[in-house]
Q: What sequence folds into this?
């Protein structure tokens, strides 16, 4: 059996568990394709998968990585219309494609929804097997490292701002952690929608970079209280939409930054999954709390068009070789990065 280079882990834990290995090249089914990985971006999901999540069992040894750019080198008998040896990206969410949720573009609500590199083996390898329907061909001059920086963060940010929050022109949005991969995507999408963008970052260097991406106001949360700053910037009214992906006390404080009729959308709980706030505050001000999770392939196709015509651009922090996966993940864990960290096999 032909083998490939991969970074794997054999038991849950920290990045110490990661090791280089030669593993069999995945065998594809009728509706699958084999993608030669050219670049794979890191996500916090990788760290959670590595640590292990309650109730979710994954096969070992496991290969992480859900943000993949590469080319299809082999396809199953029923993988029609997929170009061979042409640049493609992989939509990170695998779903049935047949249920009512999938058919209406809400793939991430499918009962069979899985994420590449999470429940399945992913892109920290030379090759990855994915369903043919997850392949999105790409064109243009952007490098494969840049394309790998697109799928998960742009899809998640798009689903939050466009589909869930329905952010409108001239509304004000606060984007938490504008220096994160998802934050840097969200700033751009919000500007594309014509909104006024306030974002928070943790260093003066990141202030400059967030402004360069189009943020109208950037708050260094290490120097200033973000809630007080948001109130000052909005003449004490608050923001229409709040893009939240941190959780814990940040979520609670974020609710207090909302304008009357405002909506807060959340997609993450890194800093704590249980929150509390005064319900009377919520109902008298008629606020909305909205959940969001990943997005659909059709949304990613819309994003790809906007990347190709230059209206959205991937933000790369640093590129590492595959064997440096541990070092790369440690950088992300310590939040030193601005934008996406990329691995190249
Ligand atoms: Zn489905």
A:
């Amino acid at each position: 059996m032909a083998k490939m280079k991969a970074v794997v882990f054999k038991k849950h834990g920290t990045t110490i568990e990661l090791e280089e290995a030669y593993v069999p090249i995945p065998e594809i089914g009728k509706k699958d394709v084999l993608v030669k990985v050219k670049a794979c971006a890191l996500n916090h999901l990788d760290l959670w998968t590595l640590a292990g999540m309650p109730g979710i069992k994954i096969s070992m040894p496991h290969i992480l990585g859900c943000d993949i750019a590469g080319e299809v080198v082999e396809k199953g008998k029923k993988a029609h219309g997929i170009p061979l040896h042409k640049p493609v990206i992989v939509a990170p969410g695998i779903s049935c494609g047949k249920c009512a949720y999938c058919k209406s573009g809400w793939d991430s609500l499918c009962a069979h929804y899985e994420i590449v590199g999470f429940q399945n083996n992913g892109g920290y390898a030379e090759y990855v097997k994915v369903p043919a329907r997850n392949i999105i061909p790409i064109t243009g001059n952007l490098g494969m490292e840049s394309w790998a920086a697109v799928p998960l963060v742009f899809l998640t940010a798009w689903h939050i701002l466009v589909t869930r929050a329905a952010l409108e022109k001239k509304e004000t949005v606060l984007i938490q952690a504008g220096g994160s991969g998802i934050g840097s995507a969200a700033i751009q999408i919000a500007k594309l929608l014509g909104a006024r963008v306030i974002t928070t970052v943790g260093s003066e260097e990141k202030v400059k970079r967030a402004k360069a991406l189009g943020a109208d106001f950037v708050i260094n949360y290490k120097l200033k209280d973000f809630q007080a700053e948001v109130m000052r910037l909005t003449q004490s009214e608050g923001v229409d939409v709040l893009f939240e992906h941190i959780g814990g006390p940040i979520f609670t404080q974020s609710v207090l930054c909302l304008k009357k009729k405002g909506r807060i959308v959340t997609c993450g709980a890194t800093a704590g999954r249980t929150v509390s706030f005064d319900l009377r505050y919520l109902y008298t001000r008629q606020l909305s709390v909205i959940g969001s999770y990943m997005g659909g392939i059709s949304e990613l196709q819309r994003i790809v068009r906007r990347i190709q015509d230059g209206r959205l651009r991937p933000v790369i922090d640093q590129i590492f070789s595959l064997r440096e996966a541990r070092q790369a993940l440690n950088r992300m864990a310590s939040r030193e990065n601005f934008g996406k960290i990329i691995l190249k096999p």
User: Anything to note?
Assistant: The chain has two domains: 3-150+314-344, 154-291.
